[in-house]
Amino acid sequence: MADRKILLSESDLPRQWYNVQADLPKPMAPPLHPGTRQPIGPEALAPIFPMELIKQEVTPERWIEVPDPVREAYMIWRPSPLRRAIGLEKFLKTPARIYYKDESVSPAGSHKPNTAVPQAYYNKQAGVKRLSTETGAGQWGSALSFATNIFGLECKVYMVKASYDQKPYRRLLMEVWGASVVSSPSRDTEAGRKFLAEDADTPGSLGMAISEAVEDAAKRDDTKYALGSVLNHVLLHQTVIGLEAEKQLKLVDEKQPDVVIGCVGGGSNFAGIAFPFMPMKFKGKDITFLAVEPLACPTVSRGMFRYDFGDTAQMTPLLKMFTLGHTFVPAGIHAGGLRYHGMAPLVSHLCALGAIEARAYHQNPVFDAAVTFARTEGMVCAPETAHAIRCVIDEAIRCREEKKEACILFNYSGHGFFDLTAYDKYFSKDLEDYEYPAEKIAEAMKHVPVVE
Amino acid sequence: MADRKILLSESDLPRQWYNVQADLPKPMAPPLHPGTRQPIGPEALAPIFPMELIKQEVTPERWIEVPDPVREAYMIWRPSPLRRAIGLEKFLKTPARIYYKDESVSPAGSHKPNTAVPQAYYNKQAGVKRLSTETGAGQWGSALSFATNIFGLECKVYMVKASYDQKPYRRLLMEVWGASVVSSPSRDTEAGRKFLAEDADTPGSLGMAISEAVEDAAKRDDTKYALGSVLNHVLLHQTVIGLEAEKQLKLVDEKQPDVVIGCVGGGSNFAGIAFPFMPMKFKGKDITFLAVEPLACPTVSRGMFRYDFGDTAQMTPLLKMFTLGHTFVPAGIHAGGLRYHGMAPLVSHLCALGAIEARAYHQNPVFDAAVTFARTEGMVCAPETAHAIRCVIDEAIRCREEKKEACILFNYSGHGFFDLTAYDKYFSKDLEDYEYPAEKIAEAMKHVPVVE
Question: How does residue A56 score in pLDDT terms, banded at 50, 70 and 90?
Fold first, then answer.
């Protein structure tokens, strides 16, 4: 019998992150100033990010050294296991070989600490005392709390009010690691007070929470801001996932994956597993990259590749990306991490070049897949991860029908221990299959600035 | 820097469990019939357990083969990592080397699947179609649901009403794996209907739930009963923990642990890590075994070594064990898994022989330890596990004060992702340090049968 788990030792942990910017067949469009609409330089980001992270945002270097203290912290849970989905393969009677990189083993339960740890480290090195951030469902907030605790930084998390009230477990996890968590909008910022004055009973939104966290960082000398997805340096840090997977596949004599699959919200977990295999594709190898999103938030499948703002309040630089429009309001699907109007510019660029294809699914078939996975592999996944699994199952069934062997690799981005109420709704047939209407997208696109 | 994680490959997974009964310096007292008070034979257990498990309950064989299908299922998460607590050691400035066996990596989040898997397997082999069990906080119920799903058995879980209402996440986890979960007392059994007739608003108890699960198994030909701790065969299965740890310590040139620590409720996770090292102790090596319990349920520290019933309703055989009396009603501490009036007869016997020492702690110092651990090691533990960690920290501090090197090994029996409300109460200074009063113990002991 094949091994279920392919393990690396700590000495195999990658010493460098891979920067796909070095190998792009065509360069990316630069970020633009929201006012002048001219390309911005690194200095524009200096008020909210430390210089090392800004350098990583723009560097053309192919390999970026992982600092020793970051590697040491990574070793708390990395290298993560690569698992062979023997139970699922058998159940599907597929000739495909299915492997998954298990990022749920991090203390915060997802891939997010892969970037939270270096972000906390570089801020500490730059003399920063305190980080501010926003969190929706709480995955990113808990990852950053875990990381700031390691390096002795304070952490202030603005947590969207609806989640703060409904998901106390994620908040408590952040507090166990010493973070200070407030319900957003809060009275701690001008933006928050303004939002509350407009509507004292607002459930909050990620857009509002971002405004509060950015204001907090911009106003305090001791504080910087940290973002959990979308930006180039975040995706860079996540490549540790794919670099490990590459070594692990070699250990079981797999020369390359034929299909690489991940779910996409902002794009970072997908980029993490996919980018290290991108050079093979650029060199002509036959690899399919599938980015999986909810039909309730079909950014790549139905959105447009345009310059748009990263936030609702139009405070961020303009980024060239797939977008549903920054005024997009997502339906309340349970995969909270996939409810974002934009897509990482690097992932968007590769989609536009045809290197990555998008797939979109409804909630119910996604939870069908999650339950099948739990009952064949034993593992209970996050609703975000379940999107990837839905696509994996469909690909494996296609392999069976076409009698085709294939090596399928996917990112198991997080566990579902804090998401069990979503499973409950699925079992109670209480999950809506919401599809974002084309008219609404067309309407929202009218608010996207036209950049010549 | 020393490695943080010591890993074994799947081929290193033990092929046999270790049966400490083979090496006891003095034999155990036999179980007695509750009516006749004469020693009972294996056949007395046949209505509720399959014969292979009954054989394991009484065998004097030192090594018991792990069947291949059980090993294959173990490989979903085993061998589990042995972790070096580098962060905690540094924080405590201790010369002690602290290792912990991470049993939280199982899909159910604790050591419980180590016995749930073989129990489900042997029942399947015996033609059983369905298992019944009780669960309090839900750890055991979720482990059995996970295991029965693997072998295609139905599973009926009687979950104590108070937990069923307050801890929906554990119930949902069981349902994801296909188990049928009811609030106990239920209308599905005679015992349940009787309890409800007496008090329609009862919060239930483990004693009531055991009565329902045993009745269910006794009345249906297709159903057997499964127990998650206390019995010899359960402890036998858990020795896979200590056997792996022994191999892992050798890999880092540790000849033996000087101190072995685990929390005790029924005794199985402690036995799992401790028993494989017991022969060293019997041969004269200097090893200290510390069983850690709550002061709210001080079974070994304050109870008596007597024949007593395993359940409140006096249905089980009489077992010679440390007990607080079968009428004992535990305080509502958060370490639900440690709220049991008795102690596994094997652990009790070794305590009585002086091979194992007990330690007892209050809740608040236990949660102090849990938070220290989360902030130095990054891992958020279950309240039960936190008892072991409290004792580890005290031992490590003693090593520092006595300037003594030592190898400390403990069992990290489970994660705390479903227990975060307990951390919340701790942070809110809302946790009571309840000590079970000596008068109450004396009173309860009056109801313990006198066996000559």
Answer: very high
Picking from A10, A178, A380, the nearest residue to B375 by CB comes out as: A178
Distance from C-alpha of A57 to C-alpha of A440, rounded to nearest angstrom: 33
Span A263-276, mean pLDDT? 97
Which residues of chain A have a Cβ shorter than 8 Å from any chain B Cβ? 1, 3-5, 7, 9-10, 72, 75-77, 87, 105, 107, 109, 146, 149-150, 168-169, 172-173, 175-178, 371, 374-375, 377-380, 417-418, 420-421, 423-424, 427
Q: Are B261 and B411 in contact (CB under 8 A)?
A: yes
Mean pLDDT value of segment B123-149: 96
Please report the pLDDT score of residue B438 as a whole number.
87
Residue A448 DSSP code: S
- C-alpha distances in angstroms, B379 versus A150, B92, B110, B241, B247? 12, 17, 14, 19, 23
Q: Which DSSP helix (H) or strand (E) runs through B155?
A: strand B154-160
CB contact under 8 A, A72 and B1: yes
* pLDDT in the model for residue B340: 85
Q: Give backbone dihedrals phi and psi of B117, rounded to 5 degrees, phi first.
A: -65, -55
Q: Are A153 and A120 in contact (CB under 8 A)?
A: yes
Other CB atoms within 10 Å distance of the CB of residue B332: 11
Counting other chains too, the contacts that B63-66 makes at CB distance below 8 Å and 24 or more residues apart are B63/B16, B63/B17, B63/B18, B63/B19, B64/B16, B64/B17, B64/B19, B64/B236, B65/B15, B65/B16, B66/B14, B66/B15, B66/B16, B66/B17, B66/B118, B66/B240
* Residues from chain B contacting residue A412 (CB–CB below 8 Å): none
Q: Please tell me the distance from the alpha carbon of residue B52 to that of residue B204, in angstroms, as a whole number.
A: 32
Per-residue pLDDT reduced to its tens digit, B319-335: 999 999 988 877 777 77
pTM: 0.96
CB B223 within 8 A of CB B128: yes
CB count in 10 Å sphere of residue B440 = 14
What confidence tier does A452 reach under pLDDT thresholds 50, 70, 90?
low
The one-letter code for the residue type at A29 is A
Binned at pLDDT 50, 70 and 90, residue A313 comes out as: confident
Convert A401-410 to b/e letters by CB count within 10 Å (16 or more is b): eeeeebbbbb
Q: Show the tokens assigned to A277.
A: 């295999």
B281-301 average pLDDT score? 96
CB neighbour list of residue B322: distance below 8 Å, 6 or more residues apart: B299, B300, B303, B304, B305, B342, B343, B348, B351, B352
The full DSSP string for A38-82 is SBPPGGGGTTTS-HHHHHHHH---SEEEPPHHHHHHHTTTPSPPE
Considering only alpha carbons, which residue of chain B is nearest residue A78?
A: B5
- Is the predicted pLDDT of residue B452 greater than 70, yes or no? no
CATH code of B79-109+239-445, in short, is 3.40.50.1100
| Mean pLDDT along residues B426-447 | 89
CATH 3.40.50.1100 placement within chain B: 16-66+112-232, 79-109+239-445
R_g (Cα) of chain B, nearest Å? 21
CB contact under 8 A, B1 and A109: no
In CATH, the number for domain B16-66+112-232 is 3.40.50.1100
Contacts with A152 from chain B: Cβ below 8 Å? none
Tell me if B146 and A7 make a contact (CB, 8 A cut-off). no
Instruction: Say what percent of chain A tops pLDDT 90.
Output: 82
Q: Which residue has the tokens 């739930």?
A: B209
DSSP class of residue B161?
H
Here the ipTM equals: 0.94
Cα dihedral: A145, A148, A153, A157 (round 10): -30
Q: Indicate the residue of B7, B379, B423 with minimum beta-carbon distance to A107.
A: B379
**Rounded distance between C-alpha atoms, residue B216 and residue B155, angstroms:** 11
